[in-house]
Design brief:
The protein has a single domain (about 5-305), classed as Rhopdopsin 7-helix transmembrane proteins (Up-down Bundle). It starts with 6 loop residues before the first helix and ends with a helix. It has helices spanning about 5-40, 45-80, 85-90, 95-125, 130-150, 165-200, 210-235, 240-275, 315-325; strands spanning about 285, 290-295, 295-300, 305. The strands form 2 sheets. It has a two-stranded antiparallel sheet with strand order 1-4. The chain has a two-stranded antiparallel sheet with strand order 2-3. The chain has about 325 residues and is mainly alpha-helical. It is elongated and about 70 Å long. A hairpin with a 2-residue loop joins β2 (about 290-295) and β3. α4 (about 95-125) packs parallel to α8, α6 (about 165-200) runs antiparallel to α7 and α7 packs antiparallel against α8 (about 240-275). The protein is built from 9 helices and 4 strands; from the N terminus they run ααααααααββββα. Keywords: Membrane, Transmembrane, Transmembrane helix.
């Protein structure tokens, strides 16, 4: 087996990666603020909920990064003479800063899972049948995640994150988070695909829901890959799992905001194109475009034009008699 990366090296790499990803999250959050201010009058209640959740996720990621910066100074400057060096100091699980930062990570994951369930529920027309397995997983993830954080406070300085007492709970939390992400993303993707397949036969133009499917899959892929890698690294007992673990807090926020912003921009572009089309005088009428949402971001469905032809027969003899009477 290859030698383990020392914790002091792992922590430097992990905080560097977290800081880079936090920069992306900050940019997305600012973009979300701009879009919400620009489209404030046209926003639904769901959109406002999503915007509020995005701000909360950014706040959690900000405090998490700040705590890691604090730990960086403590480990390499203030406690540089700690017995065993920085590696030994970082391995202490019961310190308030370690417990707090991991509690923030667990909260970010749980919040992301809860909002993904909400998005899937909205997209499935509030069908409660899909909620049961997802809510059960959410409850299991919440219990396992906060149990780990509570157990940290009881650990002694010689404890290790791979100890048997912790490993079962941590593995359960990682696994549940990954399965939850796969299920919610799969349910939303299937719903968009099935709707697109059904509406294709009635569509009179080239508007499609497939771009929304691509947005969902591309944006969720980063979080799914990160959660799978951290689960594999932890199961194999590698310290490198810390690198992905610290990165997951901003990654959850990036995934959430990326989906919300890209769908909002796509929907706004589609709506403006629909408004800019010249009106044509035709027999019959056109139904109003219906809207579906992915957790508040409007997804305009396709308008269906219904033409009504009326055949009117005229009796020539009746017309002639009418003219004679006049």
């Amino acid at each position: 087996m290859a030698a383990q990366m020392p914790l002091d090296q792992v922590f430097i790499v992990s905080i560097w990666m977290e800081a880079v990803l936090y920069g992306f999250l900050l940019a997305l959050t600012l973009a979300s603020v701009y879009i919400n201010l620009a489209l404030h009058r046209h926003q639904s209640t769901h959109s406002r909920i999503m915007f509020g959740v995005g701000v909360v996720m950014w706040a959690i990621a900000t405090v998490h990064l700040s705590l890691n910066c604090y730990r960086l100074i403590q480990g390499y400057v203030i406690h540089r003479d700690y017995p065993g060096g920085p590696s030994a100091w970082f391995s202490v699980l019961s310190s308030w800063d370690h417990v707090t930062k991991d509690t923030l990570y667990a909260t970010q994951e749980i919040l992301g899972d809860a909002i993904a369930i909400y998005r899937a529920w909205i997209l499935w027309n509030q069908d409660c049948r899909i909620l049961f397995p997802l809510v059960v997983l959410l409850i299991g993830g919440t219990i396992s995640g906060y149990t780990v954080c509570g157990t940290f406070t009881e650990e002694h300085g010689t404890s290790n994150i791979f100890d048997h007492k912790l490993k079962s709970w941590i593995s359960a939390f990682y696994a549940i988070s990954f399965v939850q992400s796969v299920l919610t993303t799969g349910l939303m993707a299937y719903r968009i695909w099935s709707t697109e397949r059904f509406s294709a036969k009635y569509r009179l133009d080239n508007r499609s829901l497939l771009p929304y499917l691509r947005i969902l899959i591309e944006s969720a892929a980063l979080q799914l890959i990160a959660e799978l890698i951290v689960l594999a690294l932890y199961a194999s007992g590698r310290n490198a799992q810390y690198i992905l673990l610290e990165a997951l807090t901003p990654v959850v926020g990036i995934t959430f905001n990326a989906i919300t912003i890209r769908i909002a921009l796509r929907s706004s572009e589609t709506f403006m194109n629909m408004k800019g089309e010249p009106r044509q005088h035709t027999s019959g009428y056109t139904t109003r475009p219906m809207r579906q949402t992915i957790g508040g971001s409007a997804m305009p469905a396709q308008a269906i034009t219904i033409n009504i032809d009326q055949d009117i027969e005229t009796d020539a003899r009746s017309d002639a008699e009418e003219l004679d009477r006049k």
